Structures are given as structure tokens and as C-alpha cells.
Amino acid sequence: MTSSHEAKKQELPPTAWAVLGLLSFPGERTGYELKKWADSSLRFFYWSPAISQIYAELRRLEELGYAASARSGPEEARAKRRYAITDAGRAALSGWAADTAEAGPPVLKHGLLLRIWLGHLAEPERLRAMVDEHVERTRGELAAVREAMEHAAGVPEWAFPALALRWSERQHLAELELAEALLTDLAALPGTEAAGSARAGAETGSGAGPEAGAGGRQADGDAPTPG
User: How is residue 215 annotated by DSSP?
Assistant: First the structure.
């Protein structure tokens, strides 16, 4: 491998490694088939790249010699280009997968929680409705995860993807539990019927008035962070 190829290898984004990872399983696949597999596997614990990203990474991987492709013959009504991993690609992927320094910490970008964080700008009923919608969506995702688990069950080549899907099942179950707890927290906020009696008792039994912040401090507009 030339030094220029080595430099490109070091610059590969995670999406390229994910696409190469899809190719590392037995068989040849079209870009469309890779997208379908990403939608039914990768998206449950990482993400699913767009079809345009998949084809862009396939071209990059071919340039590096990590993947090879061939067009289908006249026996198919529509010509298709199928991709397969090369020996060089498998060696590079093995090295990347074994490098724990590149894994990095998990990144959470929770759109619902961003809106909850801005809840002072929304109606309580709308916030609860958003959480309810999130619960239903998560239940649908959990059903999709379990369907993928059934599809992978008993296939020796998919033993490790099955482990990732099992982790994803647990993660979705935890997400449902967290959402239910969030609904309970929302119900206990000031201004809600559920919190009314509890808040009245707390104000009667403590020396701090309703204007006091955490730890008895005045709610003087400081950001709710330590320090």
C-alpha cells in the first residue's frame, strides 16, 4: 500500500468503516441491499447512512482497494453492481475494529430531552404529549429490533450482530422506563394538578418561600449549574 493510500486510510470516517463492515459478512451486495441491512441493523445502535453516503463510501473503498465490484450479467433484467470486501479491506477493517482507542465514548443526542430542557417555553400538556409520542415510537422501534433478532437467530455468521441487537433491545426497554419516569417527573412540576397538594405541604412546612431556589438560594436568574 502506498503512503498516499495509508494517509487516506487514516482519514476514513466511521461511515466508511461501517459500510466496509457490512461487506465483511459472506456474500456480495448491491448498494441498495447494504442500505436495507443498515436500516434493519446498524440504525438500532449506531445510525443508518443515506443511500447517497453508502455509494460515496463504496467508491472511496474501491479506490483504496478495500472493496471490489462487478456488474451483473445479462441474466438479470436490470444490471446491478455488487460489491465485496477484498483481502486488503478485511485486514484494514480487522485492524480498525481491534483499535479500542478509536471507539470513543457514546454520543447521545436526544431531541425530546432538548425540548424538555426548553419546557419553560411550552405548555405542560404538549410536553406530556411529546413524551407519549416518544413512548409509542420507541415501542415500534423495539418491535423492529425484535424482528431483526428473530431474523438473525440461528445464523452462525450473524452471532455478533445478534449480540448488538440484543443490547439494542435492552436499550429500548431502558428508554421506555426512562420515558415513564419522565412523565412522572412532569406531573410533579409546579403548575400541575398532581403537584398541587405536595407543593402546598412543602411550602407550609418549610421556612423557604416559593421564591427560594435549590439549597434555599434565591432564584436570581443564575444558570442552574454548580459554581
Answer: G
φ, ψ for residue 104, nearest 5 deg: 70, 170
Looking only at Cα atoms, what is the longest distance across the chain?
85
CB distance 133 to 112 below 8 Å? no
Instruction: Check residue 137 and report its DSSP letter.
Output: H
C-alpha cell at 120: 419553560
Q: With a threshold of 0.70, does the pTM exceed it?
A: yes
Residues with Cβ within 8 Å of residue 188, at least 6 apart in sequence: 194, 195, 198
**Lookup result for grid cell 456474500:** 27
User: How do the pLDDT tens digits run along the chain, 227 residues long?
Assistant: 555 555 555 579 999 999 999 999 999 999 999 999 999 999 999 989 999 999 999 999 999 999 999 987 666 656 689 999 999 999 999 999 988 777 778 888 999 999 999 999 999 999 999 999 999 999 999 999 999 999 999 899 999 999 999 999 999 999 999 999 999 999 998 866 544 444 444 444 444 444 444 444 445 556 665 65
